[in-house]
Amino acid sequence: MMKKSVLLLLLGLSLFQLSAKEGMWIPILLEKYNLAEMQEMGFKLTAEDIYDVNHSSMKDAVVIFGGGCTGELISDEGLLITNHHCGYSQIQSHSTVEHDYLTNGFWAMSRDEELPNERLTVSFLEYMEDVTDKVLAETANLDGEAKDTKIKENTDRIIKDARKEGKFTASIKPLFYGNQYFLYVYKVYKDVRLVGAPPSAIGKFGGDTDNWMWPRHTGDFSLFRIYADENNEPAEYSPDNVPFKPKKSFPVSMKGIQPGDFTMVFGNPGSTMQYWPHQAVDVTMNQRDPDRIMLRDKKLEIIGSDMESDPKIRIQYAAKYQSISNSWKKWQGEIKGLKRLDAINKKLAYEEEFKKWAQQNNTWDNKYEDVFVAFDELYSNYSHYIKAYDYYSEVVMRGVEVFGQARTINSIINNIENKQNEKAEDLRSAMLKRLPGFYKNFNQPTDEALFVALMPELVNGLDKQFLPAEVVETINNLDAKKLIQKVYRKSILTDREKLEDLLKNGSEKQLLKLRKDPVVAMFNQLNFIYEKDIVPEVQKISKSINENMKVYMAGLMEMKEGQAFYPDANLTLRVAYGQVEGYEPKDGVKYKYYTTLTGIMDKDNPEIYDYDVPDRLKELYNTKDFGQYEVNGDVPVCFTASNHTTGGNSGSPVVNGNGELIGVNFDRCWEGTMSDIMFDPERCRNISLDIRYALFIIDKFAGAGYLLDEMDIVE
Is the predicted pLDDT of residue 381 greater than 50, yes or no? Predict the structure, then answer.
């Protein structure tokens, strides 16, 4: 354990009170900062076993799955495991009322039955590199726009060279608000096929009621297989492709877990904000989270009611509902956690310590005072504009679905008017290609209900400067029925056949007439203000905040020279480590570190979709047909540990001290969801699927035990 100053001990849960449990660490720096502590806790391998560019290592068995999850290889034949909720949209896309894989599950009993997934990719990290000096080359004497331009030139050149003429993808991401820059180079595979998924009554057991909660009994996993060409290189889908041969796959442990066992999560956490000043915490806790929760309350009520009324709508909106509800519930826990920790005052206390340090070092007046004055002014403006941004995001951009179609129509029209005919034609073709998928998962009455519920919230919730006068007049002067009749139902976007015909055969003149379509016109009026008055201001203020944060962050690291700092998460490969342990969520309550199949049976309720335990699972339980997965007369299901995780860690491998897979990370406990902003070692726990339960479901429940034959299972 690293020593802590008396002040930090007094602050209790200060930003920089790092225990073994806190932190998302850069793999190439483990030897320097973390390895000794990890080994003291029970890690038996080396830093090179985790990350090595010259030899196979764990990094070669971990992927970015899709756009924002993690997955890991569990066989040398390209078999990959991730969360059920990470593969949910793929499972949903293959589901129909006749073949309802969401409800019934899906299991390929041979390679020929595995299902391809359009646009699904997995990305392997080839290497990461500190390129700070290269990015900042020749910028020492530059300021403002000139410096930004030079940094962009340097960045573009580094990325171009790293891509090797298209063999790889690459990106450069700032760490510590631009005090450091890292290059990340990936190889992307595009042929990824669905192999297996349990029914939602297992993979999503407990639904939104249990989401973010402990005790948890969710079998949150799905299986995919990566395919490659004959040279093991990325290729578009083809029946001729062959299973990918990874450099490394994880051995799967049947040894089980005990309290205090070392655990490591190796994945791609999305975003954290550990170093925010108190003003940022205030805006999030008291404005942003409550606003977004309120708007999503309405969306979830409407969509949820319609899903319950019709199996077809349930399938159409399953993935959308999950996407909306996940953050909605997380934000509620975040508010409670930040209030319980008295987060704003703790941030203020730490800022006071920093101010005293800066004054003692004679850097306050000429450097840091301006930063703190700027924070006050910037966050005052930011709160004003980010409110409008959040409302538009929840209502216009990700609320009413036909607005998404209107956005594309608007872009087509703009390109025609600007004589960009080739771009207009490309957009027209792309929209035509997407139409079947859009309308397959679209229910007009649901979207109408969202329209009439959300638009008044937008109009009544924002200052008039952020609203088009015509839209305000329309919303205020028409009741719900007339709003649907005179605006929504008069739009061509509600008539797939007419829209499809227009996109296929319509002239440019006919397309330009869509400017007068009532939904397109309303979207255009809203989007004009959004893009002209809201987004640019949010970006401008955010840029200024980050510039001041860069100075503040450098000062913090100087003040705590010699202390290990971990950068905020940014959807790149990180290591978090801790131990298997339960926790005490509140006074008088203590949670164990594991759950079992018995707990699933205790929750069984055939009247509730999310708790309707499948008959086959009940049969296995009643006959005690547990096979090799039995532990003390039961089957382990999930466990908690003290690893620091966030969104993006969904699907991450959880390994023991030998580097063997013991679980698949899928959630955090609700009492710890504020960990993106402030970590509490007493209550922040990650929730993982016990890998033995996944094997039990594959083998005993699904009868797909042949998949275990290709795994390296450690008894």
Answer: yes
